[in-house]
Specification:
The chain has helices at residues 2-20, 26-78, 97-103, 124-136, 184-205, 225-231, 238-252; strands at residues 82-87, 92-95, 141-150, 156-167, 174-182, 212-214, 220-223. Helix 1 (2-20) runs antiparallel to helix 2. A five-stranded antiparallel beta sheet has the order 2-1-5-4-3. It has a two-stranded antiparallel ribbon with strand order 6-7. It has seven helices and seven strands; from the N terminus they run ααββααβββαββαα.
């Protein structure tokens, strides 16, 4: 818009200069100059109004962009999951507070360092393989990737990772965006559940009375030893026995 304004000003001056060089009576020249000046002034005023409107639109767009940037920054910073931005070599470019807490180090010890530094040695080869596939574009996104990582104090913690490759706005370079969710509590709860199931099955096995445990759909899923000893049937034989019993019942009716 500034270039357009400059061009209009130059055209107006050129028209005035051409008029001043014409061999016209002074009163006629004065009248034409005044007319041309009025025309140029009107054009300049119109251009100024357009420029003002465009500046206001640009200011509004910048404010909208800034608001979106701030919202993104707040989501990034205050998310309960760890978020990282790395280049395609895995060098960390940005980290939110949750990621800093996960690794238990200061931000200065994360930024500029390779993420591989915080991968457990037993997982290192898998990590490098996945990173190379992301770099080459063999895959552009990987979800629910479970990995054992290390804190700055070299203690371990399990995470579920979602990572995707994107083209950053700055310079059009490729970046990797990482989401890291600590799954320590989930794995602990799974172990507790498995142990509870084991104890429950042991209790049925060792019960002093015959027990037959069925699922909601009627499938027999567990027998006590006493039940097997009394009937002589194992769990694997139950479906056949039930089938035969139902068959005999249907035939008798």
């Amino acid at each position: 818009m500034t270039m357009e304004l400059n061009a209009r000003v130059q055209i107006a001056f050129n028209r005035l200069e051409n008029l001043s060089q014409c061999n016209l009576p002074s009163h006629e020249l004065t009248s034409k100059l005044l007319s041309e000046l009025n025309t140029a002034l009107h054009e300049l005023q119109s251009t100024a109004v357009e420029l003002l409107e465009q500046n206001e639109e640009m200011a509004a767009s910048r404010q909208t962009l800034e608001d979106e940037r701030r919202r993104y920054q707040e989501l990034f910073e205050f998310s309960p999951d760890g978020y990282l931005v790395t280049d395609t070599e895995g060098i960390m470019l940005a980290a939110n507070s949750a990621a800093i807490d996960l690794f238990n180090v200061s931000k200065s010890l994360l930024i500029g360092k390779p993420l591989a530094m915080f991968v457990h040695s037993e997982e290192y080869l898998t990590f490098r393989t996945q990173l190379e596939e992301l770099k080459k574009g063999t895959i552009v996104r990987k979800e629910s990737w479970e990995l054992v990582m290390l804190t700055g104090k070299r203690t371990t913690f399990p995470v579920s990772i979602t990572v995707g490759k994107v083209i950053a706005s700055r310079g059009g370079t490729a970046e990797l965006r990482w989401s890291l969710r600590d799954i320590t509590k989930r794995l602990r709860n799974e172990e507790i559940l498995k142990e509870s199931e084991r104890q429950f099955r042991n209790a049925i096995d060792n019960a002093p009375i015959p027990i037959l445990l069925q699922a909601e759909d009627g499938e027999v899923i567990k027998l006590s030893r006493v039940w097997t000893e009394m009937t002589g049937y194992t769990l694997e034989e139950i479906p056949t026995i039930l089938y035969e019993l139902n068959k005999e019942k249907n035939e008798s009716t």
